[in-house]
């Protein structure tokens, strides 16, 4: 099963999956900011993991959200 078929470079096949990736990245970024002095290396790792979850920068995630929403609208009008 290919979840990335026809949804663009940054989009997801399901809106819920895309929003969960964004929520996970937000939680990782918040943790990294709060604990940056106590655990600098873990904070750096959490920041990198957040960028991986976002598939790039926050703007890339937003572009993916628009792609996912437009794909959903396109699928609903075809059927």
Q: Overall 3D geometry?
A: elongated
Q: Could you report the average pLDDT, rounded to the nearest whole number?
A: 84
- Number of extended strands: 0
The stretches of 5 or more residues where confidence is low (pLDDT under 50) are none
Helical segment count: 3
- The quaternary structure here is single chain
Distance between the termini: 21 Å
Largest sheet: none
Which class do the helix and strand fractions yield? mainly alpha
Strand content: under 5%
Elements, N to C (H/E): HHH
Estimate percent helicity: over 70%
Protein name: DUF2892 domain-containing protein
Transmembrane segments: 12-35, 41-66
Keywords: Membrane, Transmembrane, Transmembrane helix
Organism: Bradyrhizobium algeriense
Architecture overview:
It comes from Bradyrhizobium algeriense. This is DUF2892 domain-containing protein. This protein has 79 residues and is mainly α. It is built from three helices and no strands. Helix 1 runs antiparallel to helix 3. The longest helix is centred in the last third of the chain and has 21 residues. It starts with 14 loop residues before the first helix and ends with a helix.
Which key features would you list for this structure?
mainly alpha; 79 residues
Short account of what is shown:
This protein is mostly helical.
Topology:
Blueprint: H1 15-34, H2 40-54, H3 58-78
Helix pairs in contact: 1-2, 1-3
Transmembrane segments: 12-35, 41-66
Protein name: DUF2892 domain-containing protein
Keywords: Membrane, Transmembrane, Transmembrane helix
């Amino acid at each position: 099963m290919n979840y990335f078929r026809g949804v663009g470079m940054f989009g997801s096949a399901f809106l819920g999956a895309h929003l969960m990736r964004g929520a996970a990245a937000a939680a990782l970024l918040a943790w990294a900011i709060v604990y940056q002095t106590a655990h600098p290396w873990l904070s750096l790792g959490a920041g990198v993991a957040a960028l991986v979850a976002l598939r790039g920068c926050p703007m890339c995630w937003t572009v993916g959200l628009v792609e996912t929403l437009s794909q959903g609208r396109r699928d609903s009008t075809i059927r």
